[in-house]
Amino acid sequence: MGMKVLYILRHGKSSSTPEGGTDHDRALTHRGKRDAVAVGAEFARRGWVPARALVSSARRTRLTFEHFSRGLAEAGGGTVEECVEPTLYLAPPARILDCLAALDDDLPSVLIIGHNPGLHELACALSAGEESTAAARLTGGFPTCALAVFHCAANDWADIGPRTANLETVILARDLHQS
Q1: Neighbouring residues of 7: CB distance < 8 A, sequence distance ≥ 6
Q2: CATH of residue 65
Q3: For residue 169, which of 76, 39, 51, 66 has the smallest C-alpha distance?
Q4: Pick from 90, 117, 84, 110: which is nearest to 22 by CA?
């Protein structure tokens, strides 16, 4: 049986909808940018480099990826290929799983940057039945720039589901700023 690594990252803290704009146009706040850089640096520190990033088409998710990538590079990590995926905008769990199923099965890992409630619901579904500290952290919600890391016993991305995923860790951006 193969192994896939799935990183689920909620976008950084975002601003309110700009005048004359839409929810899709929301940018990141200073905190959102700082948190995304910190998560990227944490990836580098842990030696994580996803093969590809699937990013919602919303401005706040694309900016999260930009700042995440900066943090990853500045901390000595690698680079990640970005694929903007419009169907991830406010996607429910089933649509997110459909995006995964469409991936090339040769990819060993993927980072998804998207939105709640879909990301939180997916993380909870994938970790259902697990009794771990990481799973317990999900019960408190999935705040901005929260990251859930899953190891999935699967050869194909289409096979990812609750019985194939093991939640390794949940990292909250606020934890990365504590001394």
Answers
A1: 48, 50, 109, 110, 111, 112, 147, 148, 149, 150
A2: 3.40.50.1240
A3: 39
A4: 90
Q: Is 165 a member of any domain? A: no
Residue 170: in which H helix or E strand, if any? strand 165-171
Strands 81-85 and 52-56: parallel
**76-131: per-residue pLDDT in tens?**
998 999 999 999 999 999 999 999 999 999 999 999 999 999 999 999 999 987 88
| Average pLDDT for 141-162 | 94
Residue-range definition of the domain harbouring residue 102: 4-12+24-140+154-160
The predicted model scores a pTM of 0.96
The reply to whether 48 falls in a domain is: yes
In a domain, 19, yes or no: no
**Domain tally, the chain:** 1
